[in-house]
Design goal:
The chain is mainly beta. The protein has 3 helices and 11 strands, in the order αβββββββααββββ. About 9% of the residues have low confidence.
Amino acid sequence: MCWTYWIACAIRGTRNRRRLNRPPVGMVRGQKGFKVNEQKFDIGTFRVESGALAILDPLCDAGEAIRIENVRTGEWSVRVNVREWYGVEKVEMVCGNDEGGLHHTNTLELIVETATAAAIDADAMMDALGPEDERVKRFLALTGGEAGASVMERGMATHTGEGDGTYPICVYRDDDGMACKIVMIF
């Protein structure tokens, strides 16, 4: 188990209780014939002013962040898909209209060690992360709601569903080459 789970349990006093229900024994994610409830949440917007986003595990070294350049500036809306027994499955961040004309340009790999992921305006990264000794409390509070995700003024944070691992980050660009949609899949 990851160390943030134990810290979260210590803070909440829930060592022997898990927040999410787990699937029945033998159930495999995506198994045919087994209906899984899915909820979608629009959790709000954050602002990008620098033209770059940093995507990272916010509880680890900030130097390991994935930096995405040529990002559209302005308000980014955040949608989260949450599955029963699994948690956060997908996070979509969109600036403007994503109904067409976007091109999938690349897929990056985010390495997560603490079951938490964040996307933050690159110039505001250190302000958004806050002091290292306060990050655990701060990000547990941001990701502790029903949606498992929350927005900040210049970014967003989320749980990663299953936990630690490597997850794909899909970048979509418009005809001008500006990134205007980013999807994290857990």
